[in-house]
Design a protein that fits this description.
The protein is mainly alpha-helical and about 170 residues long. It is built from eight helices and two strands. It has one domain.
C-alpha cells in the first residue's frame, strides 16, 4: 500500500478507537481535547508509516535514507518491521519509557499499517522470522483498486468528521 492509504487506514482505526474506547476523555483530561486529539492522531500517523522504514523509497525512508537502507539490507522490505513482534517490542519500549498515552496511539497506527498490508497482493508475514502466518490480499499496490479503497477511506473520514455524507 502507498503511504496515503496507510495514513487513511490509520486515521479510520484511530477514529474508531478514539470514540469506542473513550480516549477522547482521557486525552482531554490531560492535554485538552484539541491538543490531545492532535497528539493522539499525530502519534498514530507516525505509527501508521513507521513499518515502511525498511523501504528506502517509502515516504519515511526518503527522510532518513541511510537508516532505511540499513534496515532494508538487514531485514528486507516487509520483514521484521512488518511483524507483530516489532509492534509488541516497540510498543512495550514506548510504554515503559513514556506511558500508555504515547504508546497506545503509536501501536494502533502500526497495527493499522499491518492490517492494510495484509490486503495487498504482496502480503506480509505477521510472525516474521517464522513462516507460519503469511497473509496476502487482493489489492495491488498503486492500482486502481487501491485508489478506490483510499477514496472510500477518505470519504468515511470526512463523513465522520463532518457528521454527514459530503460527496
Amino acid at each position: 500500500m502507498l503511504y496515503r492509504t496507510h495514513l487513511a487506514f490509520g486515521i479510520i482505526i484511530g477514529i474508531i478507537t478514539w470514540s469506542w474506547i473513550g480516549f477522547r476523555q482521557a486525552y482531554s483530561n490531560i492535554w485538552g481535547l484539541w491538543f490531545g486529539g492532535f497528539i493522539f492522531f499525530g502519534l498514530l500517523s507516525i505509527g501508521a508509516l513507521l513499518p515502511d522504514i525498511d523501504h528506502p523509497k517509502s515516504k519515511l525512508g526518503n527522510k532518513i535514507p541511510k537508516t532505511s537502507h540499513f534496515f532494508h539490507f538487514v531485514f528486507g522490505h516487509r520483514g521484521f518491521f512488518h511483524s507483530l513482534f516489532f509492534v509488541v517490542i516497540l510498543s512495550g519500549i514506548l510504554l515503559v519509557l513514556f506511558g500508555n498515552m504515547i504508546s497506545f496511539p503509536f501501536m494502533i497506527g502500526m497495527l493499522s499499517h499491518l492490517f492494510s498490508d495484509c490486503l495487498s497482493t504482496e502480503g506480509i508475514n505477521l510472525i516474521y522470522p517464522f513462516h507460519q502466518l503469511s497473509v496476502k490480499g487482493f489489492i495491488e499496490t498503486g492500482s486502481i483498486a487501491e485508489f478506490i479503497v483510499f477514496f472510500l477511506a477518505v470519504a468515511f473520514i470526512l463523513t465522520t468528521i463532518f457528521g454527514r455524507f459530503i460527496f
